RNA sequence: GCUGCUGUAGCUCAGGGGUAGAGCGCACCCUUGGUAAGGGUGAGGUCGAGAGUUCAAUUCUCUCCAGCAGCACCA
C-alpha cells in the first residue's frame, strides 16, 4: 500500500502527500498566501478542520473568506465557543450547553452558577472583553475523539449536568469529539473549527442581548440564559450589519403606525387594535380588494356569531383542544349586588369564537346538499378572539382580536386536490399584487396532539403535497419545506410565510384539509348514489388576518404605500394665501374623482409643507400658487421622485391620479 | 407564561434623595414666502401604579402593570 495520498484540487490538479498530512500542509505547499487565508477545508464535500489529517485519497477545496457563506458559518461557530469559554472564565461554575451559529451571528445557552442571578445586559461588556482576550491569545483549537464514558465522566465530574445528559443521549454510532481551546478549556462539539482563536477578528463581533431559552426547547425544562451575538469576518461587515438593523428599525410597523397616525395599542385592550381613520382606510381598501378577489374566485360571503355556547365548542372539539386560547364568557345576567359575586360559580359558559369553522359547518348543514352543490366556497371576514400569552403579543403581527380573511371550501374527495391547487394560484396572484415577489410555502405535518386516524393523516398530508406539486410550487424558489409536528390539531396545514423588516418570517396564508370537523359536526351531502357522504373541509386564508397583513405591508413598503392603499393620496398645498380658494376647488374636484385628498392652507412656507408631507409619506403633493391659480394648473410633486415638479393642467392631473389610484385588480390588463 | 432590559410633556430623549429639563409638535403673534425645518411668545408633567426606607422619594428597595428582545405558544 502506498504511503502517498492523492489529493485532487478544484483546478483538476492532483498532489501527492504523505499519510498524516493535513489540508493546511497542502495549502502551504501551494503558497504562503493561501496558507494564511485558508480557514477550513472541504474534503470530499465535507467541511473539516484545516488541521485534521486526510483519511485517504480525497478531493480538496480550501475555504477562505471568499467562500463567504461557509466562512461566516465557521467564524460564528467559533465566536460561540469563545463566548462560552469567556463566560466560564469569568464565572466558574457556569454550566454550558449548546451554542450554534445563526442567520447573522451566534448564541450560547448557559446556566449561571448556583446562587447567582441569570446573566443580564450589564454582564455583556465584561464578556466581550474576555472574548477579545481569548481571541488575542490565539489559542489553538484542537480536535480529539473521546470515548463516550470518558466524556460523560468528565462532564459529571465538572458538574456539567446538561452536557452529561446530552453526551449520554447522542446516537450510538456517532463519533464523539471535543475541541480543546489551548490546553485549559474544552467543549464537546462536532466541529469544524478554525485552527486557532486568533483567526477571529476581535473587532468583528458584538454581543447583542440576553434572553431566556428552555433547555432543549421545552417549557417543562430548566430555563437557561441565551447570550446572543452577531459575528462577521471583519469590522466593516459588522458595521454594515448594525447599520442594516438600524434601517430595519425605521420600517417597524409599530413606529410607522404611530408616526403616520394609523393605529394605536393601549393596555386597556391589550392585543387589540385601535384603528385610527388613516389606518382603517388601508383596511377598507384591502378588504374591498379581497372581496373582489374572492367574488371572482366563486366564494359566497357570510357572517357568523361572535359568541356561541360552550356546548357547540365541545362538539367541535375546540373546548377540549383549544380552550386555553379561548375567551370564555358566563351566560348569565351579572349581579349588581356589591356583596354577591358577579356571576355564580356554576354559570353556563359561552365563548368568543377563536375560529370561524364550526359556524361555517353549521351554515353548510342548513338544508340538504347534493353532490352537485359541491364545491361550496364560503368566505367570511371573520373577527376572532384568541387568548394569546402576553409574551407573544407583538404590534399588529400578533394580536388577540384578529379579523381573518377566512374561508371554507366543502369538497368531494375528487375535487380536493384541484381546489387546493386553485387556492395556491389565488394566493400567488394576491401576494404578487402587493409586490411580494418571494414567499415561502411550507407543509406542517401532524402534531402529537391530534384528532383522527393515522390513515386520514397520511392521506391528507399527501393531498396537500400533491396539490402544491401540481401547482408547480413545491420547489426551492417557493421555499418549499415540510415541518414535522407543526400541523393544527385537526389537519395538516400548508402555510405561506412572508418576511418582516428585520427578517422574521410570519405566516399569513394557510390551507388545511380537514375530515375531522365535518365528522364531529355531522356535515353531509347526498351523493350520486343517493347515499349520505362526508364532505372534506378545506380551511383557508390568503392574507391570514387583516391586522398581521397590514403590519407586514407597512414594513414591506416602509410606510410608502402604493397609491391605491395610501390613506391620504394627495395633499393640495398653497404657496400664498391668495391661492386658498383655488386650492379648495382643486381638492373638491379631486374628491369628486374619488381621490382621497387633503388641503394644506397653513401659514407656512412651501419648503416646510413639502418636508412635512414628504415625511408623512403622502404619495402626491399638488402645489398651487398665484401662477397655477391663474392658469388652472397644478405643480405635481411625487413622493420619492427625483424630478422636482411637473406643472400640468388640473384636468390632466385628475385623470392621471384617477388611473394610478386603481387597485391592481382594477387596472386594464396590459 | 418564562428570562433579561425599559417606563420622565402628544413624540424623541436628558436628568437625578430637597416637588423637573431640551428639541420637535401644539396655541397665539409677526412674516405671503416657489419645492425637505422663517422668527417670536406661550400653554403643557400625580416622573407607569402601589407599598416600604427616609425629616424628605420622580430618584433607593420590594410588589404589581405595561412595553421591548428572545424562548415557549401561534395567523
Shape: globular
CATH C-level of the largest domain: Alpha Beta
Q: Helix proportion of residues, in percent?
A: 25-40%
The low-confidence runs, each spanning 5 or more residues with pLDDT under 50, are none
CATH fold-level assignment of the largest domain: BirA Bifunctional Protein, domain 2
CATH-level-2 architecture of the largest domain: 2-Layer Sandwich
Strand content bin: 25-35%
| Gap between N and C termini | 72 Å
The CATH H-level homologous superfamily of the largest domain: Bira Bifunctional Protein, Domain 2
The largest pleated sheet is described as: 8 strands, mixed
Number of helices: 20
- How much is the average pLDDT? 92
Number of domains: 4
How large, in whole angstroms, is the Cα Rg?
31 Å
Strand arrangement in the largest pleated sheet: 15-20-21-28-25-24-22-23
Structural class: alpha+beta
Tally the beta strands. Answer: 33
In brief:
This protein is α+β, with helices and mostly antiparallel strands. 33% of the residues lie in helices and 26% in strands. The structure holds one RNA strand of 75 nucleotides.
Characterise the protein shown here.
This protein is an alpha+beta fold. It has four domains: 4-64, Beta-grasp domain (Ubiquitin-like (UB roll), Roll); 69-246, Threonyl-trna Synthetase, Chain A, domain 2 (Threonyl-tRNA Synthetase, Chain A, domain 2, 2-Layer Sandwich), CATH 3.30.980; 275-302 and 368-556, BirA Bifunctional Protein, domain 2 (2-Layer Sandwich), CATH 3.30.930.10; 570-666, Rossmann fold, CATH 3.40.50. It is built from 20 helices and 33 strands. An eight-stranded mixed sheet has the order 15-20-21-28-25-24-22-23. A five-stranded mixed sheet has the order 2-1-5-3-4. Helix 3 (68-90) packs across helix 4 and helix 5 runs antiparallel to helix 6. The longest helix is centred in the N-terminal third of the chain and has 23 residues, at 68-90. The protein is globular, with a radius of gyration of 31 Å. The mean pLDDT is 92. The protein binds one RNA strand of 75 nucleotides through strand 11, strand 12, helix 8, strand 25 and strand 28. Keywords: Aminoacyl-tRNA synthetase, ATP-binding, Cytoplasm, Ligase, Metal-binding, Nucleotide-binding, Protein biosynthesis, RNA-binding, tRNA-binding, Zinc.
Amino acid at each position: 500500500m502506498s504511503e502517498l495520498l492523492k489529493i485532487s484540487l478544484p483546478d483538476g490538479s492532483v498532489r501527492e502527500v504523505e499519510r498524516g498530512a493535513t489540508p493546511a500542509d497542502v495549502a502551504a505547499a501551494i503558497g504562503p498566501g493561501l496558507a494564511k487565508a485558508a480557514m477550513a477545508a472541504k474534503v470530499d464535500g465535507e467541511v473539516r478542520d484545516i488541521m485534521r489529517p486526510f483519511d485517504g485519497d480525497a478531493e480538496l477545496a480550501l475555504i477562505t473568506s471568499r467562500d463567504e457563506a461557509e466562512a461566516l458559518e465557521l467564524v460564528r461557530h467559533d465566536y460561540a465557543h469563545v463566548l462560552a469559554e469567556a463566560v466560564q472564565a469569568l464565572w466558574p461554575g457556569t454550566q454550558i450547553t449548546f451554542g450554534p451559529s445563526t442567520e447573522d451571528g451566534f448564541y450560547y445557552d448557559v446556566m449561571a452558577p448556583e446562587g447567582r442571578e441569570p446573566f443580564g445586559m450589564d454582564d455583556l461588556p465584561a464578556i466581550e472583553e474576555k472574548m477579545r482576550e481569548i481571541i488575542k491569545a490565539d489559542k489553538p483549537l484542537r480536535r480529539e475523539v473521546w470515548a463516550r464514558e470518558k466524556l460523560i465522566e468528565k462532564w459529571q465530574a465538572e458538574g456539567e449536568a446538561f452536557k452529561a445528559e446530552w453526551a449520554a443521549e447522542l446516537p450510538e454510532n456517532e463519533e464523539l469529539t471535543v475541541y480543546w481551546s489551548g490546553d485549559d478549556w474544552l467543549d464537546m462539539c462536532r466541529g469544524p473549527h478554525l485552527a486557532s482563536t486568533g483567526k477571529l477578528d476581535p473587532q468583528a463581533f458584538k454581543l447583542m442581548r440576553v434572553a431566556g431559552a428552555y433547555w432543549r426547547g421545552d417549557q417543562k425544562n430548566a430555563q437557561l440564559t441565551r447570550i446572543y451575538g452577531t459575528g462577521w469576518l471583519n469590522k466593516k461587515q459588522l458595521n454594515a450589519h448594525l447599520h442594516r438593523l438600524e434601517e430595519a428599525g425605521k420600517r417597524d410597523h409599530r413606529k410607522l403606525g404611530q408616526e403616520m397616525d394609523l393605529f394605536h395599542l393601549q393596555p386597556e385592550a391589550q392585543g387589540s387594535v385601535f384603528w385610527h381613520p388613516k389606518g382603517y382606510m388601508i383596511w377598507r381598501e384591502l378588504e374591498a380588494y379581497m372581496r373582489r378577489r374572492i367574488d371572482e374566485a366563486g366564494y359566497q360571503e357570510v357572517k357568523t356569531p361572535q359568541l356561541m355556547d360552550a356546548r357547540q365548542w365541545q362538539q367541535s372539539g375546540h373546548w377540549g383542544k383549544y380552550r386555553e386560547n379561548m375567551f370564555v364568557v358566563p351566560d348569565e345576567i351579572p349581579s349588581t349586588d356589591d356583596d354577591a359575586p358577579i356571576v355564580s360559580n356554576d354559570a353556563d359558559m359561552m365563548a368568543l369564537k377563536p375560529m370561524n369553522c364550526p359556524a361555517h359547518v353549521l351554515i353548510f348543514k342548513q338544508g340538504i346538499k347534493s353532490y352537485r352543490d359541491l364545491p361550496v366556497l364560503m368566505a367570511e371576514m371573520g373577527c376572532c378572539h384568541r387568548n394569546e400569552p402576553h409574551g407573544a403579543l407583538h404590534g399588529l403581527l400578533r394580536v388577540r382580536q384578529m379579523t381573518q380573511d377566512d374561508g371554507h371550501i366543502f369538497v368531494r374527495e375528487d375535487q380536493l386536490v384541484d381546489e387546493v391547487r386553485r387556492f395556491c394560484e389565488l394566493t400567488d396572484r394576491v401576494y404578487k399584487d402587493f409586490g411580494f415577489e418571494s414567499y415561502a410555502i411550507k407543509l406542517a405535518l401532524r402534531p402529537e396532539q391530534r384528532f383522527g386516524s393515522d390513515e386520514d393523516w397520511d392521506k391528507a398530508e399527501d393531498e396537500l403535497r400533491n396539490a402544491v406539486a401540481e401547482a408547480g410550487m413545491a420547489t426551492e424558489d417557493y421555499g418549499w419545506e415540510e415541518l414535522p409536528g407543526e400541523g393544527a390539531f385537526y389537519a395538516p396545514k400548508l402555510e405561506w410565510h412572508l418576511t418582516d423588516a428585520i427578517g422574521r418570517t410570519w405566516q399569513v396564508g394557510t390551507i388545511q384539509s380537514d375530515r375531522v370537523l365535518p365528522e364531529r359536526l355531522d356535515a353531509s351531502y347526498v351523493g350520486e348514489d343517493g347515499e349520505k357522504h362526508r364532505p372534506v373541509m378545506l380551511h383557508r386564508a390568503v392574507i391570514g388576518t387583516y391586522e398581521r397583513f397590514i403590519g407586514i405591508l407597512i414594513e414591506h413598503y416602509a410606510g410608502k404605500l402604493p397609491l391605491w392603499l395610501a390613506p391620504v393620496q394627495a395633499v393640495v398645498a398653497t404657496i400664498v394665501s391668495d391661492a386658498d380658494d383655488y386650492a379648495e376647488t382643486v381638492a373638491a374636484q379631486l374628491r369628486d374623482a374619488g381621490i382621497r385628498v387633503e388641503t394644506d392652507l397653513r401659514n407656512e412656507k412651501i419648503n416646510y409643507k413639502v418636508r412635512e408631507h414628504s415625511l408623512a409619506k403622502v404619495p402626491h403633493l399638488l402645489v398651487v400658487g398665484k401662477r397655477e391659480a391663474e392658469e388652472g394648473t397644478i405643480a405635481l410633486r411625487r413622493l420619492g421622485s427625483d424630478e422636482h415638479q411637473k406643472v400640468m393642467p388640473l384636468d390632466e392631473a385628475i385623470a392621471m391620479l384617477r388611473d394610478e389610484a386603481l387597485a391592481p385588480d382594477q387596472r386594464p390588463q396590459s
